[in-house]
């Protein structure tokens, strides 16, 4: 069965491994997050897990994760694909978050301590591919999550490569278009403004040329500086990408209006005020962000 709950026309899985899920992993909250953002044609989310297409050693395949039973399954011509996928899946679902340490730090703030008691474990959802996440973040600027998902679906429908042999009932039938394709692609008629098209193609060109990468060992300040040097990408988008693509635990989009309103109900903090208050949450500010977003609904 696929993550969307129906059979897919595909070869038998080549490998399955146990993910050793944390005992109190917030399955429902994480799946709900991905379900709202899954890119049609590339990703699918069901009641038990997540499914997507991917490329390994130049060949396409599929992976499926069951977060209730705790396994990863890969369907790929190369049996070593599961070893490639496993660490990325662990980061995708933030399976190794240092819960004890981050709860100890965040719990020093009485406001966050109350939210931790209410919401349990907090995970920062990652991503499979940094460029894919960057495109999704740009598409989501100043519009709803649902609207951004619609735009992503249109982008995939026009420019993605369909996987040979993907059945008509396969929900993850295509590969997300790479940076070199989108850098010069015709993006007119997708519902994007001219400014948004310029931002997407600027991002794609920078990634394709090696001027911007999503290497997780790079300093946060350098990544943010390179992102914000691109037209149409501001501090919020850069920090959001750092949270999810770089797995930067201290990334913090201080300009976020939800964060500025939810921390002190009845008051809208300035970005500077929020930044100052967040210093006590270092080095786990990204987890504070997810906690506050969850509390806001």
From TrEMBL:
Any matching Pfam family: AlkA_N
Domain DNA-3-methyladenine glycosylase AlkA N-terminal: 16-129
Keywords of the record: DNA damage, DNA repair
GO molecular function: alkylated DNA binding; DNA-3-methyladenine glycosylase activity; DNA-7-methylguanine glycosylase activity
Gene3D superfamilies the UniProt entry points to: DNA-3-methyladenine glycosylase AlkA, N-terminal domain, Helix-hairpin-Helix base-excision DNA repair enzymes (C-terminal), Hypothetical protein, domain 2
The EC number(s) this enzyme carries: 3.2.2.21
Keyword DNA damage appears in the UniProt entry: yes
Domain HhH-GPD per the UniProt entry, residue ranges: 139-297
Full protein name: DNA-3-methyladenine glycosylase II
GO CC, alphabetical: cytoplasm; protein-DNA complex
Any single biological process term in GO: base-excision repair, AP site formation
Catalytic activity: Hydrolysis of alkylated DNA, releasing 3-methyladenine, 3-methylguanine, 7-methylguanine and 7-methyladenine
């Amino acid at each position: 069965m696929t993550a969307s709950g129906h059979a897919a026309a595909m070869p038998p899985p080549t490998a399955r491994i146990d993910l050793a899920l944390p005992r109190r992993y917030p399955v429902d909250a994480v799946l709900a997050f991905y379900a709202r953002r899954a890119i049609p044609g590339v990703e699918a989310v069901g009641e038990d897990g997540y499914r997507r297409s991917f490329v390994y050693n130049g060949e396409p395949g599929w992976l499926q994760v069951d977060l209730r039973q705790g396994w990863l399954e890969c369907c790929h011509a190369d049996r070593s694909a599961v070893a490639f996928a496993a660490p990325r899946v662990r980061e995708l679902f933030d399976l190794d978050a240092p819960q004890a340490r981050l709860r100890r730090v965040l719990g020093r703030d009485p406001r966050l301590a109350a939210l931790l008691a209410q919401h349990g474990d907090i995970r920062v959802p990652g991503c499979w591919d940094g460029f894919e996440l960057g495109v999704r973040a740009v598409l989501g600027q100043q519009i709803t999550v649902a609207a951004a998902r619609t735009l992503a679906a249109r982008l995939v429908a026009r420019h993605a490569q369909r996987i040979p042999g993907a059945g008509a009932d396969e929900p993850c039938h295509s590969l997300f278009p790479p940076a070199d394709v989108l850098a010069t692609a015709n993006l007119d008629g997708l519902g994007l403004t001219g400014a948004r098209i310029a931002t997407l193609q600027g991002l794609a060109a920078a990634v394709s040329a090696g001027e911007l990468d999503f290497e997780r060992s790079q300093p946060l300040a350098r990544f943010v500086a390179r992102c914000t040097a691109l037209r149409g990408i501001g501090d919020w988008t850069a920090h959001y990408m750092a949270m999810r693509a770089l797995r930067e635990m201290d990334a913090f989009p201080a300009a976020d209006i939800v964060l500025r309103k939810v921390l002190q109900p009845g008051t809208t903090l300035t970005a500077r005020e929020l930044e100052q208050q967040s210093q006590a949450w270092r080095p786990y500010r990204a987890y504070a962000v997810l906690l506050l977003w969850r509390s806001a609904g």
